[in-house]
Amino acid sequence: MKWLALALLVLNVSFWYVLSSPSGYLLPRNVASGTLPRVGSLKSLDLHKGGPASAESVGYPAGADELSERSCATVGWFDSFTAAQSLAEEVVAAQSYDYQVREIERQLAPLHWVIIPPQPASVALEQLKRLQKRGIDSYLIARGENRNAISLGLFESREAAVSVLEEKKRQNLNAVLVNFPRNQLSYALSFEARSELVEKLVHAAEADYGNNFDFIEINACEGVATSDKTP
Q1: What are the strands of the beta sheet with 215-220, ordered from one edge?
Q2: What architecture is the 109-183 domain classified under in CATH?
Q3: CA-to-CA distance for 166 and 164, rounded, in angstroms?
Q4: Residue 11, SS3?
Q5: Class of domain 64-107+185-220
Q6: 82 φ, ψ to 5°?
Q7: 229 pLDDT exceeds 80?
Q8: Is it true that 64-107+185-220 and 109-183 share their CATH fold?
Q9: Burial class (CB in 10 A: 0-12, 13-18, 19+), 115
């Protein structure tokens, strides 16, 4: 009986000790209940501002309002599609939303043409032979509104053309000065990028191209650019 009483006393003391132990030794009730917050209720925090992080700060796309932060630029002219495309791939593509190389036929200032006016083909041929025998640089115009006229020189400078015209008149040639209309295929590079990057990309493209562009246009984008990166 004595040993039985001693055993019961030890058991009671042990039970009392467990119940009175610090709560840190017990399983927390919130874990046992299985109630965890839903993922949708979690908020990322911007450690610099102490508030909810923006989409940009956690690496997500800025969203639909990003369009208002875009600018569209067009620069030119390039002599070839290849030159514009290469520059776009090397300088613009990595930091732009989209780019496009456009082929444009543009009208240039006319040249100044010294000619002997059109005349019957046989007469023009005979005069051409005489001019070439005298060592005068001359060509027969074979088509166009000045067909069967004789060309005595084509000049960008009006002053140079007038000088040659006066010289030919002193040689008793019935020369006149007319305009020579001309068009040229040129290429422009258009791209769309974040507003704060556009001017930097334009300057980088200009430096890489090694020449000042004939024109630079930067405007707010009117809509979303297409995904097609070729004309």
Answers
A1: 139-140, 150-155, 98-116, 176-194, 70-78, 215-220
A2: 2-Layer Sandwich (3.30)
A3: 5
A4: helix
A5: alpha beta
A6: -60, -40
A7: no
A8: yes
A9: buried
Is the CB of residue 116 less than 8 Å from the CB of residue 174?
Answer: yes
Q: Assign 206 to helix, strand or coil.
A: helix
Kindly report, residue by residue over 24-47, the tens digit of the pLDDT.
333 333 333 333 232 222 222 232
Structural contact between residues 99 and 231, judged by C-beta atoms closer than 8 angstroms? no
Q: Domain coordinates of the chain in residue numbers?
A: 64-107+185-220, 109-183
Contacting residues for 227 by C-beta, under 8 A, at least 6 apart: 98
Residue for token pair 């405007």: 219
pLDDT per residue as tens digits for the range 67-124: 458 899 999 999 899 999 999 999 999 999 999 999 999 888 999 999 999 999 999 9
